[in-house]
Amino acid sequence: MKAFVTGATGFLGSHVAKVLAEQGASLRLLVRATSDLRNIASLAAEHVTGDLRQPDSLRRAMAGCDAVFHVAADYRLWVRDPQEMYRSNVEGTRAILAAAREAGIERVVYTSSVATMGFTQDGPVVDENSPVSLASMIGHYKRSKFMAEQVAIDAARAGQQVVIVNPTTPIGEGDLKPTPTGRIVLDFLKRKFPAYVDTGLNLVDATECARGHLMAYEKARPGQRYILGGEDLTLKGLLDKLGGITGLPSPTVKVPFFVAFGAAVVDEVFTGYLRGREPRATMEAVRMGRKKMFASSAKAERELGWKMVPVEGALRRAAAWYRGNGYV
Fold first, then answer.
1. What angle do CA 237, 309, 254 make, to 5 degrees?
2. CA-based nearest residue to 185, from 254, 243, 259, 257
3. Fewest C-beta in 10 Å: which of 140, 164, 166, 270?
4. Residue among 74, 328, 9 nearest 183 (CA)
5. pLDDT tens across 78-105, in order?
């Protein structure tokens, strides 16, 4: 198989590229002129320069490939110009799918997010059938991913071989930026986590999640969504696990949501809008935190052969990677 991969220079995309290489796939990786190539430096792969927002570059880049793994996304919980996010996540996905049709690609695996699921405050564990709508999406990242997912579903309904995976919260080594999730680990290592809020999330080992992408390519039904998840943990439970791994103290003070939201307002105004830097705390993140994002991977287990693994190994690798690469 000759696989075209977007987002391979990023966190989850690099794991997908490595798993494909381990399985003997020939790789063609989409990179931007400004991309940091450290995550793919060890891979024997062809690099093509292009951009999700430049459809002509995508059509040329896919020529001769058998499969597309569209992992790239603008994953930020704060952005000065929200339209940048929609151009990358929504229009970029539309352009990828159009280019794949023109190139005669056999199958496209689209990486969506568990963020598109129908979470409710103190609600049940969600699955792919939980009721959801665009109106329930909090913030531009969730809205853009929901809209992009609808583009993928519409393409499948029109006959294109598109399958959708919905990773929960990937964790592991190689999170260069880091992502908002990686920042939780990094802030803990830097002792910048003095308190916590009552929220929860599902954590998945990034390497296992990448293997789930290959399972989806081989076994998923077109147009279907598959949650690729791991352990459900409260934020306090996650911090306690990190404390056990690192020997650092886990916070014991729980902050009410109104206090956390007020701090996020101040951080967004002064760090984001006045200084032009991404804030550590955002109003969107705090609002999302009111919903415990616990999720079931039962459908992927039934149809893909997915197996949930404990997340402690991934947390250990993430902590060791940050320490070994000068982040701490």
1. 10
2. 243
3. 270
4. 328
5. 677 889 999 999 999 999 999 999 999 9
